[in-house]
Design goal:
This protein has 87 residues and is of the alpha+beta class. Helices cover 37% and strands 21% of the residues. It is built from 2 helices and 3 strands, in the order βαββα. The protein has a 3-stranded antiparallel sheet with strand order 1-2-3. β2 and β3 form a beta hairpin. The radius of gyration is 18 Å and the shape is flat.
């Protein structure tokens, strides 16, 4: 039995996420915050089967600067959207 370290998993998932989007998908609304830790995940594996996953995370509120960035990004994005559907 061993625990898979989350760093390798994180790097792999980042590459998969980047490659999953077509080149014409705008990802500018994703706000990267360097001051926030990511969720720590540990997987307990026996043989080739995952027995358990343990997650640790801290909840943080966004600060005023992050809020303003999100609002401005949304305003700019909304100006460029063409909507064909109305709800």
């Amino acid at each position: 039995m061993f625990i898979v370290e989350d760093l390798l998993e994180m790097i792999t998932m980042q590459k998969k996420l980047i490659n999953a989007f077509p080149k014409n998908v705008d990802c500018n609304l994703i706000l990267k915050a360097d001051n926030r830790p990511t969720i720590v995940k540990k997987r307990v594996i026996a043989g080739h089967q995952q027995l358990l996953r343990l997650d640790w995370e801290e909840e943080f509120s966004i600060n005023e600067e992050e809020e303003n960035i999100i609002i401005e990004n949304l305003k700019n994005h909304i100006k460029r959207i063409r909507c064909n559907y109305f709800i």
